[in-house]
Every structure is written in C-alpha cells, then in structure tokens.
Amino acid sequence: MSTHGADLQLSPPTDTLSSVGEVEALKRIFPRLPASSGALLGPGDDAAVVAAPDARFVVTTDMMIHGPDFRLAWSTPHDLGWKAAITNLADVAAMGAVPSALVVAIAAPLDTPVATLEGIADGLRDACAAHAPGTGVVGGDLSVSNTLTLAVTAFGSLEGRKPVVRSGAAVGDTVAVAGELGRAGAGIWLLFAEGTSVLPTRPDKTAAPASEQLPEPEGQPDAELGRKLREQHPELVEAQLAPTSPLDAGRRAGTAGATAMLDVSDGLILDAGRIALASGVSIEFLHDAIEAEAESLRALDPVVGAQARDFVLCGGEDHAMLATFSSGAALPEGFRMIGVVTERAPGHPLVTVGGEAYVRPGGWDPFSDWNGATG
Amino acid sequence: MSTHGADLQLSPPTDTLSSVGEVEALKRIFPRLPASSGALLGPGDDAAVVAAPDARFVVTTDMMIHGPDFRLAWSTPHDLGWKAAITNLADVAAMGAVPSALVVAIAAPLDTPVATLEGIADGLRDACAAHAPGTGVVGGDLSVSNTLTLAVTAFGSLEGRKPVVRSGAAVGDTVAVAGELGRAGAGIWLLFAEGTSVLPTRPDKTAAPASEQLPEPEGQPDAELGRKLREQHPELVEAQLAPTSPLDAGRRAGTAGATAMLDVSDGLILDAGRIALASGVSIEFLHDAIEAEAESLRALDPVVGAQARDFVLCGGEDHAMLATFSSGAALPEGFRMIGVVTERAPGHPLVTVGGEAYVRPGGWDPFSDWNGATG
C-alpha cells in the first residue's frame, strides 16, 4: 500500500482557493495525489501519456456535483475523493478490466479552503492505494465554479481479454453478484430520514404501511446529525459516503469468461434490467437468495427493518459486480449465485423475483427528486 | 467530413432537462454526437474501449464553467461544444499526437432547454468533423448542477513517436509558431469593452496612456451587443468564442522532430516561459517577427490599434502551436520562425522580446479577476 503523500499536513482553514491562488493551491495538492505505475509521462505537460499494453484502453467518465450527488454537510472532502475514485474504477472493473489511471478535474468556489481540495486528493490517493494499487492520477484541471464539482475519467487495461459487455447474457446462464447489496441505499435513506435538521413529514392521505413510509425530500443536511448517524450505523452510512467495490472481482469475472457484467449503480432490479434488455433475455432472481441478502442486511444493522428486501433490490450505489456466467462454469472467488437467465417471452417482465414482477413501493428518490433549491 | 447527425432538428425551447427527463434528453443528444473511428466499443456500457495502436495513449482533461470560462449571453451552445472540443484536442496535438476520441461530461441546471444540450453536441460534432475527422465521443455523463459545466477528456495517438514535451528545448533551437496569435485575446477584450450593458469606467487617478486603457471587469454580458460585435469583428470574436487550432501542425511538428511544444493557452510570453523554465533555457522573440505578427493582427482588424503587440504577446486562448526545432532543421508546413532559444544566464529573464524583458501593461484579466458574483 502506497503511503505517498500520506503524512502531509492539511493547510490551515484560513487558506482558501482565492487567498493562495491557483498555482499555489496546485502546488499543495499535487504531492498528495497517487502516482500511476502505468504513466509513461505524468502530469505537468499539455497531456499525459499512459501505457496500453494490449493496444486498447478502457475509459469511463463520471461527474460528482454538490447537491444532487453529495452534501458537504455529510461527506468529508476525503469521502468525496474516495467516492469519485471508486465509482469510476468500478465502471472500469465492470468491463473485466484492471484499473490503470485517472484524470481528475475539480471546480470549486473561490472561498473553498485549500484543505478541502487536499482532503479530496487524499481520498483519491487512499482509495487507489486500498483498492487499486498502482492506479494514480496522471492529469487534471482546477477551475473556479459556484458549484463544487468533481469530474473523474478512469482508465483500465483488459490485458488481452474481451471486454465483458451487457449484451452477452444467454438463456440458462447463472446470475451472480460480488460485493454488497442494499447498504448504500439504506445509508442515504438514513441520512435523509434522520440526518436533516427539519423532520420529514408525509401527509396522512398518502400514508403507506409503516414499513414503506420513506421520508420526504425535505430538511437541510445537518453535519452533526450526519456524524452521529455515521457512528451509530457505520456500515450503512459509510457504504453511501465512502463506498467500496470488489474491483478485483471484475477482473476475475473477465478471466472466468463472464458472459455479461455491470456494477450495481442504480439498484439490482434496474441494473439487471439493463443486462436483460441489452441481451434480449429475462433475469429471474431466486426468492431464497434475495431473502438471504435481505436477512444478511438486517443482521448487519436492524435499523433497515422490513425495508431490507427493498434496499437489496432497489438500493443504488453499492457498486457490487453483477455478472452472468455459463451454467456449467464455476463461479469465480467472491461471487454468489442469486438468479438465472431465462427466455423473454412476449409480455414477460425483464426482471422477476421468485417468479413475480417486482413493483417498487411508493417513495421518493433523493437524487431524481433533487430540485437544486435545497441541500 | 462527417455529416452524422448534421440534419437533426433542435428540440422546441419548451422542452427542458426537467420536463423531458435524463433518459429522453440523452436519447435526443446521442445521435448528434460524432462517432470515433478508434472506438472498439462505443458508448452505452459501463465504459468504452478505444484503440491504442502503439500501446500508449495521450490524455488531457479540461473543464469549461459558466462564468469564468464562458457566458451564455455571448456563446451559443454550438460555440460551447466546439470550443470544448478544440481546446482539449489542441492539448493532444501539442504532444505531437493525433486526436482519437473524447469523453464528455455535462452538468446543467434543470431548466436548461434540451436544445442547448443538442447545440453543444452539434458543436462537438462539427469541430471534430472540421479539424479532427475520425475523432468522436466514446462516452459521457449527464448530470444536474446549478452551474452549466462541460468536462471534456481527449485522447490521441503518438503513432509510435516520442511525445513532444516542454522540457526539450536546447540553446540554439529555432522558436516557431503555427496558427494565429492575439485574435482570441482581442476578442475577449472587445466583448468586455463593448459587449456589456454597463459601460466600463476607470478612475482618473489610475489613468494609463490611452493605448493601455483596458476596461474594468464591470457590466453584464449582453447578448445583443455580443451579436453585434461578432458581426462587426468576426475574426476576433469568433477566435474567442469558437476558436480553431492548427491540430495537424502538432503532428507535423512531432514528425519533424520538434524538441519542445505546447499550445498557446495563456499568452505567448507566459507559455514560452513554461518551455524556457522546463528546459532550463531562455527564449528570445525577435523584434521584427513580433512586429510583423502585430501588424498582421492590425491589418486583420484595425480595432486592436496600438494594443496589437500586447494582444500578440499576452493574449490567451489562440491555441497556436508554439514549438522549438533544432537550428538546422527545416520548419514543417505551417510554422513560421519567431525566435531563438538562448542560454539562461543568472538573473536573465525567461523570455525576452527584441532583447528586452517584456512587462505587461497594467490591466485586468477577465478570467483571473472573475469573482463569481458577476456574469
């Protein structure tokens, strides 16, 4: 594990982007960033040069924006850098590739403490060191914006293998998952339910059974309440704010000949539907397997209660690897079977659970419902 | 020249990101984007796969943010896509590489018309078709933000050549430039001087000679005034809002063995200083060559007047290729000699013009002075 930059002090909070200037800010951020073992030419020129040993490279890009994607009241700067790295590296791994490098563009308000940017750099470094050693930042950009924004582009190498795309699942394949399900979704539910300073309300006329009463997207994210929740429910809240992803399982699935794969970003049902749609098949999750996932989430933290199954099936941002394998094949290390690929008959749903179509309980989604005025 | 997507209608202005939703917006933007001939796997999966024929790839990233980097009052959506493509491709070309692909992340307010996003896509497509045919968009991300933001990452191939870095200039080398100097700087000066709705003022006590009286960073960018300026001074205003860059000159310089190169983003003096600093040399611009550049800018548009020389030396964003070549070498097509590389004696400036250190006249810089409250 790289300790490059790990012992550097943070700048005092009075040093801001505008008070020290861009050049000095970059000078302080730079030594904290992880180096890439694949960089043939690193940062500092018009562009970097990165090795692509099998004459191809995998590339994905994703932005994180203050408001819809994170709240500074709940996420530390270290969380932001960590999450930006992991979410992008998970997309690389979901192709069956091994991460190699990142470029990172950050835009921040002028009054942003330099220590915030340093914390983001530390999070990038620590996520790479912990989950993708050798992967580093080969280039970047620092700009001014009224809205704190991170744009990360991640690269990887297929090491000569075929990319594992979404469209290769075949009838009879085994559906398997590596990593956790439902934790990050339960984490964001907890933060909105109990981490905001105005208590959520729901008009009686739309009252749902108690287990389905999700909070309204109201209230202001509260730093102190968020900290408390993180202490009380570390597994759930950390899965949301500083997620991990079984990146190496992606490579193992590629090596084992997975027929299709993606990382679970928007929930198991929705993401399985993407594989089913692209492959022209249906995906049937096994009742017992999903119950076991729900039971395991409930055992981890009883606060999820009767909603455990919904978090498992609908919770996003866990970045588990969801893959299909030919029925005869042994599952690679870290994968557990949770379903099978079936024929898609006319009118048949893309995804079923225990043979039934799954209907998500009424509720709100803090992301799709975000309106730019709150948080 | 690709006409892919070129005949698609824009959506009606009443269709916004929030009224049609992300999925539908992407569906409309997608067919307008340029395809990449180097894409082994295009958009639509967790990540794309791009060819890297010589087992390396060149990568650079740059954000454009509403406020510091552009104003919607002056730039059309097509301008934004065009400029985002060109500025990034120029960084690829400045390594001596040939552009191959882009990934594009856009974050926009919910009330953004879909037609704005379509216009950005059209600008990306038309810039690639005009200046880097075969280069296309292999992936992207669409998010919600209070601040319209474009983050582009561009890729290129060195075709087996060494990258042309900033640190290779040697004493005796010829300094040469391909492309235009001073136009984009004069364009932004014009826009701030005459394209804002409040006329700039300068207190008498700081009055400089007339030729140096640059406007204050005051006033609101005005769409109608901007349109008028673009009609009256098309070369200067378009160089700022929809720049071109001699991308192919970058490859030619690489092939011809340029010893150092960058694209002029922040002004000739400042960027030459970067080569000089990295190479441990000084750069001497020839008096007559700079006068000829200034004269040519004045001939193009007399509005630049006595400031022509300052625009040539300090104007940024022209994305000309500034390169050094061994003294015996023939300059590649499109390059003209403007200086020589000299020894850096102790206390000697990094860059001189006609043997003298250049001191920039007092003035403001709309970018470094941008404070987030205006525009």
Automatic annotation (TrEMBL), chains A, B:
Binding sites annotated in the UniProt record for Mg(2+) 5: D266
Any one of the GO BP annotations? thiamine biosynthetic process
Write down the superkingdom of origin: Bacteria
Function summary = Catalyzes the ATP-dependent phosphorylation of thiamine-monophosphate (TMP) to form thiamine-pyrophosphate (TPP), the active form of vitamin B1.
Which chemical reaction does it catalyze?
A: thiamine phosphate + ATP = thiamine diphosphate + ADP
Q: What else is known?
A: Reaction mechanism of ThiL seems to utilize a direct, inline transfer of the gamma-phosphate of ATP to TMP rather than a phosphorylated enzyme intermediate.
Domain PurM-like N-terminal per the UniProt entry, residue ranges: 44-157
Q: Where does ATP bind?
A: G140, D141, R166, S265
Protein name, UniProt field: Thiamine-monophosphate kinase
- One GO molecular-function entry: magnesium ion binding
- Tell me which residues bind Mg(2+) 1: T61, D62, D141
This protein's pathway reads:
Cofactor biosynthesis; thiamine diphosphate biosynthesis; thiamine diphosphate from thiamine phosphate: step 1/1
Binding positions (Mg(2+) 2): D62, D91
Region annotated Disordered, chain positions: 201-223
Family of the protein in this entry: Belongs to the thiamine-monophosphate kinase family.
Q: Does the keyword Hydrolase belong to this entry?
A: no
Give the encoding gene's name: thiL
Q: Name one Pfam family in it.
A: AIRS
**What taxonomic classification does the UniProt entry list for its organism?**
Bacteria, Bacillati, Actinomycetota, Actinomycetes, Micrococcales
**HAMAP family per record:** TMP_kinase
Residue sites binding Mg(2+) 4 per the record: D46, T60, D91
Fetch the SUPFAM superfamilies from UniProt.
PurM C-terminal domain-like, PurM N-terminal domain-like
Q: What's the EC number here?
A: 2.7.4.16
Q: Give the originating organism.
A: Subtercola vilae
